[in-house]
Amino acid sequence: MFEDILKSIFSAGTFNQMLRSATPVALAALGGAMTEHAGIMNIGMDGMILMGAFFGALGSYMFQSAGMGVLTVLLMGVVVGLFFALFTVKFRSDEFIIGTALNTFALGLTSFLSRSIFGTAGTKGNPALPTIHIPFLDNVPFLGAVFNNNSLFIYVTWILVLVMWLFVYKTPYGFWLRASGEKPETLRTAGIQPERMKWLASILCGILCGLAGAHLSLGQLQGTFAENMANSRGYIAFACVIFSAANPGKAYLAALMFGFFDAIGLRLQDYISSDLTNIIPYVITIIMMVYVVVRSQQKKRHAHRSKVQGAAAT
User: Could you say which DSSP state residue 86 is in?
Assistant: First the structure.
């Protein structure tokens, strides 16, 4: 039995499921990295993901086109990002309260609209995002089963990770974005308004979280929307942002770790109760956050010790 469990855990299907589970978390984490660099703590990503999932399904249903569903999500992401920035940047409201309110609002709005338009069962069978088949991978053992025939957004996410990393660390706008969170007054003396970069970060976060939701409804679940289908992925994404210090590449790796343990939980359901296996990825997330806190405290103690030793030496 133990050998069967190991074979199941380290099978190609597990790693394929890892990519599927990690993608929405990774997309949202990329958006969260933008607001984190801008000095905004965004815990409203779960609501952004949920609205992306709903409006993606709604656009696909109304226009009978997955592409129009994605376009609807992009427009929704801009609006939600502007809404979030209006309160956190313009009105300087408490970020935690606004994020919590956004999550609650999104759950209520999408549930109400879903029941009004689709009924209590939600909607399914709408036009979905295409799956990508890479012919040369057919002849590659294991890797072919992992990387082939996945939803479009899985491959798009790889590109976005690279693009966002280049944007943050290799462009002037990325430098200004980071400065708006770390040294806003210094940025202002250079003639650049940090508030504008915060608005930009919020909009990017809204778009990326919306795409995360679109992947859920139009990619992973093939044109399906159900109430509260974000299932706390926004909070997982926020943990990935903190764990990775808002580095897009590291955030994706953290999302992959979540996806791997989520896939393991699904595989173990053949041997263990699903009530137990479903909590595995969330336990890992808690461990991630504890690690971040402990490491931060260690760095502070090390810095304090170095400062004391330096003062004693002088």
Answer: I
